[in-house]
Design brief:
The chain has 13 helices and eleven strands. α1 crosses α3 and α4 crosses α6. The longest helix is centred in the middle third of the chain and has 35 residues. The strands form three sheets. Strands 6, 7, 8, 9 and 10 form a five-stranded antiparallel β-sheet that branches. It has a four-stranded antiparallel β-sheet with strand order 1-2-4-3. The chain starts with a strand and ends in an 82-residue tail after the last helix. The protein is α+β, with helices and mostly antiparallel strands.
Length: 522
């Protein structure tokens, strides 16, 4: 194999690699020997088919397989010989005009990870804001839980439905006068103002009463999951069968028993654990952002453009999805465009912090154990159907890039925990409102080298690198410590549920990607 460097500019590298026909032919011989015992051909005993006949019968497949293996191993050797650390998968192109029996000429293009001087972790100072899980906080959590479990009771038949009421309806939907699948149903309970149905549907139920028949006109959102209904105007003929009003929830022993607990004290114990977990999550979020601000302020180095663009693409896709759920989609997207440069700066910061944390972790021996990795794989496999889980687990175990993507968040958390242990930490007790305000203050500025700001002023942390929701202000702070996302329901006329905006800064993980095989041409 002959290698010539054709580009060395910044973090970009390009090589011309020649794999000789002799090398490829030798690999074909190896393939023939490997499959010979299994080849069956009339007139020959099993395993006794001559090698030249096997070559003739399977020439194209053998040559293609041998070439792909030669390319794969050649790229790996290139990386090892030149001590290259690819930022993403190298692009491998086989020269036009390649024919079997000739040398194979490849072009291997890649961006390498920057050489980062071992980051100093001395002098890190952090403030840990703590919030006590007192009785008031626990009762507020119970009241919030009770509100989510609200019950409805029958209202007088003359009662006109209002915001917050529940209406039981039969419905029949149509587009251009033609009924569509899933558009008809009976006894559907709709809570007016819940936002479960597509925009405009619930509002038109206000003022209706038992026995009313009405035609509701709406337009399906552009992002509606049924292709034939996207953006389509529709009509729903509805009949109101019942109107119910919210029933008062009394928080006492009986309420606790309805949840399967012994009494209210047991419910308080359970809720106190949840409150403590939430508050600990907020404390960690604040500390992590302050830590990342200090790292970002102290380090400045070039980052691979392809990694930045990949990270920016993920941020932008999330933002556009959220914008599509705003009342005025076009206005929301226009607002986004004004901040494009800011989000690109966030992508740069994420990538730089990801590389920095990776370098710190490697320098100090931070590792994800095999046992931890197996647990991650098992957890990820649960999202698949039972019959597909084993195949997913095998895929992750065999694909280095997939394993790296799964491993990255846990590795980052372990590096952050390591840095917490090394930092000088002072504690300060605050209220929940104060810590939420401190976290939300992160939305004001992207800190980093050359920003011209004092990064330790007045306990105000730098802007997080998470995508913010356009147009309407998101209620993200309350979701900081939560990882769960409720699945979208699917009755007729339901809108697609928007995913939660990220609640915590997320440095992009630095992953070493395997070389991508070039397809063998005849």
């Amino acid at each position: 194999m002959n290698t010539v460097e054709t580009l060395n500019e910044g973090l970009k590298r390009e090589y011309r690699v020649t794999i000789t026909a002799k090398d490829i032919d030798a690999r074909v011989d190896d393939e023939v020997k490997a499959i010979a015992p299994t080849v069956r051909m009339p007139g020959f005993r099993p395993g006794k088919v001559p090698a030249n006949l096997i070559r003739k019968m399977h020439a194209d497949a053998l040559s293609a397989d041998a070439l792909n293996k030669a390319i794969d191993q050649g790229v790996q050797k290139l990386m090892a010989d030149h001590k290259l650390r690819p930022a993403l998968q190298p692009a491998v192109a086989l020269a036009d005009g390649y024919e079997r029996g000739k040398d194979a000429e490849l072009t291997v293009s890649l961006e390498v990870l920057p050489d980062i001087e071992a980051p100093s972790i001395d002098g890190l100072k952090l403030e840990r804001l703590t919030v006590p899980a007192d009785d008031k906080a626990v009762m507020a959590k119970i009241e919030e839980f009770a509100a989510q479990m609200k019950r409805f009771e029958d209202a007088p038949k003359t009662k006109k439905a209002a915001q917050g009421d529940q209406v039981i309806i039969d419905f029949a939907g149509s587009v251009d006068g033609v009924a569509f699948d899933g558009g008809t149903g009976e006894d559907m309970a709709v809570e007016i103002g819940s936002g479960q149905l597509i925009p405009g549907f619930e509002d038109q139920l206000v003022g209706t009463k038992v026995g009313d028949e009405k035609t509701i006109k709406v337009t399906f959102p552009e992002e509606y999951p049924v292709e034939t209904l996207k953006g389509q105007p529709a009509e729903f003929a509805i009949t109101v069968k019942e109107v119910k009003v919210p029933a008062a929830s009394k928080i006492d022993d009986e309420f606790a028993k309805s949840l399967g607990l012994e009494n209210l004290d047991k419910l308080k114990e359970l809720m106190k654990d949840q409150v403590e977990q939430e508050l600990n999550g907020l404390t960690r979020t604040y500390m992590k952002r302050k830590l990342l601000d200090q790292l970002a302020a102290a380090h400045d180095f070039d980052v691979p453009p392809t990694m930045v663009e990949a990270e920016f693409g993920q941020i932008w896709q999330q933002l556009e999805h959220e914008a599509s759920h705003e009342a005025d989609v076009e206005a929301a997207k226009a607002e986004l465009e004004k901040d494009r440069d800011e989000y690109h700066a966030i992508a740069v910061r994420r990538v730089r912090l990801g590389l920095l944390l990776s370098e710190i972790g490697q320098a100090h021996g931070v590792q994800v154990s095999n046992q931890e990795m197996q647990r991650l794989i098992m957890q990820a496999a649960q999202q698949y159907r039972p019959e597909d889980r084993q195949r997913f687990m095998e895929y992750v175990q065999q694909d280095a890039l997939a394993a790296a993507q799964l491993r990255a968040p846990l590795y980052e958390d372990k590096v952050v925990d390591f840095l917490f242990e090394k930092a000088e930490i002072t504690d300060r007790e605050v209220t929940r409102e104060e810590i939420e305000a401190a976290i939300e203050a992160d939305d004001d500025h992207v800190h980093g080298p050359g920003c011209g700001h004092d990064h330790d002023h007045d306990h105000k942390p730098a802007k997080k690198a998470a995508a913010k929701k356009p147009a309407a202000k998101k209620d993200a702070v309350k979701e900081e410590a939560k990882a769960e996302e409720a699945p979208a329901k699917k009755p007729a006329a339901k809108k697609a549920a928007a995913p939660k905006a990220e609640a915590e800064e997320k440095p992009a993980a630095a992953k070493k990607a395997p070389a991508k095989k070039a397809a063998a041409k005849k």
